[in-house]
Write the structure tokens for this entry.
Amino acid sequence: MVTYCDMVDIVPSIYRPQLETSLVRLQGTGAEDVKPEFANILTLPRGRLQSSGTSLAAVDFPVPQRGSESVVIDIEELMEWLARRVRIESLDSMGKYLLQFTELLDVIPQAVEAAKKHFPEAQLVMDVYQDPEIDDSYLVLYIRLKHYDDSVIERLEKAEAEFLNQLVNKRGWIQLTTDFRDP
């Protein structure tokens, strides 16, 4: 069985992220076989990359494109891109969710860009929502504003309309909403 560590040695360095941001080590081929090790490797409190001491704010990451040698690398690149644009509440939960629902990797940047377009003044917060009553979870992108007015719901609907059709026939979900909290 090939592990993630073995794959890092096989994948040419051009495909590897520059920062030490390994999120998981693969133990099998399915998401259920993945052992998360996020907490010990990467901590992103309020947009700072702690593992190397480098601020992600100093690096401009392009929109991630899928198609690298490994889905883990694709997830790492997306997480780095997200860290520059949104506050990530639970890095561990996000990583697990993305490993399970890799089809969303292409939709997430569209959702973030749509939210930024319609809410340039907002703080964006991404998390995994776990329904307390049933076994269901999905990504949630919260819009947090200093002032909420009558246009918020209409703007939410317009932003969501820009990526909603990309979720058709995909496993997983991303919900754009607000929790009416202050940024």
